[in-house]
Amino acid sequence: MTVQVDRQVAVRLDAVSKRYGDLLALDRVGLSVAPGEFVCLLGASGCGKSTLLSLVAGLDEPTAGQITTTGRRVAMMFQEPALFPWLTVAANVEMAMRELPRRERRARAEEFLEMVHLGGFGRKRPHELSGGMRQRVALARSLAQDADVLLMDEPFGALDAMTRDLLHDELERIWRERELSVLFVTHNVREAVRLGDRVVLLSSRPGKVVEEFPVRLARPRRTDSAEVATLAARITDQLKQEVARHAETSGRTSAARPAEPSPRPSAEQTATPPAETASAETASAQNHTAETVSAQNHTEGTVSARNHPAETASARNGGARS
Ligand SMILES: Nc1ncnc2c1ncn2[C@@H]1O[C@H](COP(=O)(O)OP(=O)(O)OP(=O)(O)O)[C@@H](O)[C@H]1O
């Protein structure tokens, strides 16, 4: 493993591949996120988006290639907030700051809860909060890790449209205020255009970067604005082509070889994505987190660099894994 510091990028993947047995999940992916940049990652179900995030988080190792992160700390947020149900909201946030003295931890937890507009909810238990509020707690916990790189795996996928809109606004505000670098996975093309400085499209298995779309629209954006819709439609067209191309390729492959059982519905097995969302392909949205992140890591909620030994070198000091 090479360790290097590069302050010019928050995250960089150089020719990163990941193989699970016979399955090539990612194929020589090249991608970078600049410090302070917000990059959204889109692609059909099963193209390797979560795999990519877990490699960057250090939860798994690439089969080939190199990953460089320069963040002091990398925090990860999942679709399910995974809070400890027996702890109060404040204690859940404090968990991310175990190295601090108790009094300081408490004060800082309250600050972070204020930041996500949950001041005064610290004594509640997670079950007393709505889904959106729980996700805010998860966001507060990520921030409490003092992360400057935030990896987000469909964090708002399970929320209703109105709550999602509100959280988009809050995430955008916090991203700006704290100068975070964000790599955000979503199936929702409009969400990607609403939030991203850049939208990166991954091909279907194996996952590979097929196109990048800079989003040059003024902020704050509205998910339902004409400008967002126009770019989202362009990206959706490209995504559809990619899904169709993959269906053709895998059709040829399966004609040559007997089909292997698939652990989850793939893009080509389901309906063509409707305009501006890739999520029609994903019957797996609910299963997703459970499938790709171990229960243990997940219980830790926002997995911090500190909590994961493999992340330590890169996340704390900036470093590269290969
Ligand atoms: N631990 C694992 N062991 C074996 N195969 C895996 C593992 N994790 C992921 N895969 C496979 O790798 C491929 C990519 O999975 P991944 O979850 O990264 O895709 P995704 O794009 O995030 O999917 P979705 O959009 O449905 O969440 C899939 O075919 C999946 O079945």
From TrEMBL:
GO molecular function ontology, one term from the record: ATP hydrolysis activity
Domain ABC transporter: 11-229
Region (Disordered): 242-322
Bias-annotated ranges (Polar residues): 287-305
Residue spans of biased composition, Low complexity class: 254-286
Domain of life, per lineage: Bacteria
Spans through the membrane: none
Keywords: ATP-binding, Nucleotide-binding, Transport
Keyword Transport: yes
PANTHER family: ALIPHATIC SULFONATES IMPORT ATP-BINDING PROTEIN SSUB, TAURINE IMPORT ATP-BINDING PROTEIN-RELATED
Name used for this protein in its record: NitT/TauT family transport system ATP-binding protein
Organism, as annotated: Nonomuraea dietziae
